[in-house]
Amino acid sequence: MKVVPRSNYLKELREILFTDKNKKTYDNDEIVSLFKQHFHLEENVKLSYVKELNQSELINLVQMSPLAWNSKKEQIESFMNQDSAGITVDLDILVGVTKHMN
Questions:
Q1: CB-based contacts of 63-67 (< 8 A; 24+ apart in sequence)
Q2: CB count in 10 Å sphere of residue 46
Q3: 84-98 and 2-5 as β-strands: parallel, antiparallel, unpaired?
Q4: Torsion sign (Cα): 70, 92, 90, 58
Q5: Strand pairing category for 39-54 and 84-98
Q6: Lowest CB count within 10 Å: 34, 42, 55, 83, which one?
């Protein structure tokens, strides 16, 4: 089982932190392809919802997310200074069985 972010995962955070259009979007094609090289894909469950986070939770999100590691201080502070914000969770849950090598 592997959980993989989809294109809208944390889009609100990416929109504030990145000016480069390529970083504002996310593509999981390479990860899914690698998974399929090693596993027979039995099921792909798509999970998508928006979760409202308060300011304390937004701060925690920024501190744990690699998306913020190379971002500008002003952009990070702009995101963390919101009273609350809806944050998108958008995932693929890949369920596979190991391919046997002959």
A1: 65/10, 65/13, 67/10, 67/13, 67/14, 67/17, 67/18
A2: 9
A3: antiparallel
A4: negative
A5: antiparallel
A6: 83
| Rounded Cα gap, residues 95 and 60, in angstroms | 29
User: How many CA within 13 A on the CB side of residue 18?
Assistant: 18
Report the length, in residues, of the chain. 102
H-type helices in 18-83, by residue range? 21-24, 29-38, 55-64, 73-80
Classify residue 30 as exposed, middle or buried by CB count within 10 Å of its CB (0-12, 13-18, 19+). Answer: exposed
Tokens of 62: 């920024």
In tens, the pLDDT along 28-55 reads 889 999 999 999 999 999 999 999 999 9
